[in-house]
Write a structure and sequence with these properties.
The chain is of the alpha+beta class. It has eleven helices and eight strands. Strand 7 and strand 8 form a beta hairpin. It is elongated, with a radius of gyration of 25 Å. The chain starts with a helix and ends with a helix. The relative contact order is 0.09.
C-alpha cells in the first residue's frame, strides 16, 4: 500500500513538473536579451554609452550596467573610446553586410508579396538597390489571365521608377549627390522628370509621405505604387510595389492600393524579425 502511494506521489510530482514546464513558452536567457537591449540603444540614435546611461535606460543598477558593457567590449560588440565611455564595435560592420547579402531577403518577403497579390489582384514585386539601380528580387502574380510580368534580376532605372525613386528618397544627401553625378536624367517618356531640382523636390515629398509612384515615367504604359520595408529603427532594406498597365492604379485605385501596401510593408518589417 505504501509502495503504491509513493509511486502515485512520484507520478503526480512528475506531472506537476511537466505541466509547469509546458507553461514556459521557451527557455530564454535574460542576460542575453538585456545585452541586445543595450545594443539597441545605439540604433535609437545614441553614439556613445556610459554605465549611468545604460542603467537609466534599462532600469538596472550601475554596477550591473558596467559589467554588461565590459562583457560586450570583451566580445568585440563594443569598444571603449574613453574611460567608461563605449561605442559600437566594428564586428557589426561585417555582420550587417552579411545579413543584407546572404540571399535570404527574397525568401522572407515572398509570403508578403503572395498575400498582397491575392488581396489587390495585381502583380507585385520587391527590390534591392545595387549600385545605381533597383533590382527585382521577388515577385507575385495575380490569379488572372492578363497581367504585367517582370523577370527576377531585372534592373530598373532609379530616377524614373517607383522603386528607384523610393530608394533615392531614403538615401542620405551625399549618396544622392554621388548618384546624380554618375547618371544623366534622360527622358524615357514625356512624363519622365529630367529637371534635377524638380526630381529632388519629388524625392523629398516621397520621403515625407512614405510612398512613391511611377506614372508612365519609364515606359508609357507601366504604372506602379511602392512603399519601403524598414527595419524597426527606420533603415530601408527593401521596397515592394503593386504595378500594372492601367493608369487607374494611380488615378483611381491609389488609396486602396496604398492601404494594402502599407499593411504589407509592416508585415515585411515583422518578417525581418521572424514574426510574419
Amino acid at each position: 500500500m505504501r509502495q503504491g502511494t509513493a509511486m502515485q506521489n512520484h507520478a503526480r510530482a512528475a506531472q506537476s513538473h511537466q505541466t509547469k514546464g509546458n507553461r514556459m513558452p521557451s527557455q530564454l536567457n535574460g542576460s542575453v536579451l538585456k545585452a541586445f537591449r543595450i545594443l539597441e540603444l545605439f540604433a535609437e540614435g545614441r553614439s556613445e554609452l556610459t554605465a549611468s546611461d545604460t542603467a537609466a535606460a534599462l532600469g538596472i543598477n550601475t554596477i550591473t550596467a558596467h559589467r554588461f558593457l565590459h562583457t560586450l567590449e570583451q566580445a568585440g560588440a563594443l569598444r571603449m573610446v574613453a574611460r567608461g565611455v563605449f561605442r559600437l564595435g566594428y564586428v557589426f560592420a561585417d555582420l550587417g553586410d552579411r545579413v543584407l547579402r546572404d540571399g535570404s531577403l527574397p525568401n522572407l518577403i515572398q509570403p508578403v508579396l503572395d498575400d498582397l497579390a491575392r488581396k489587390v489582384g495585381e502583380a507585385c514585386m520587391a527590390t534591392e538597390f545595387d549600385r545605381d539601380m533597383a533590382v527585382c528580387i521577388a515577385k507575385a502574380l495575380p490569379d488572372r489571365s492578363l497581367y504585367v510580368d517582370i523577370r527576377i534580376g531585372s534592373r530598373l532605372d532609379a530616377f524614373c521608377t517607383a522603386h528607384g525613386k523610393l530608394w533615392l528618397a531614403f538615401m542620405g544627401p551625399d549618396q544622392q549627390d554621388r548618384y546624380f553625378d554618375s547618371i544623366r536624367l534622360t527622358g524615357m517618356t514625356d512624363r519622365t522628370i529630367t529637371d534635377l531640382a524638380a526630381l529632388k523636390s519629388e524625392l523629398r515629398t516621397i520621403r515625407e509621405q512614405g510612398f512613391s509612384t511611377n506614372n508612365g515615367e519609364r515606359e508609357s504604359d507601366i504604372y506602379a505604387v511602392a512603399v519601403p520595408i524598414l527595419t524597426q529603427h527606420g533603415r530601408m532594406v527593401s521596397a515592394i510595389s503593386v504595378f500594372g498597365a492601367s493608369p487607374t492604379l494611380i488615378e483611381q485605385k491609389r488609396d486602396t492600393l496604398l492601404a494594402a501596401l502599407k499593411d504589407a510593408g509592416e508585415n515585411g518589417t515583422r518578417a525581418l524579425y521572424g514574426h510574419f
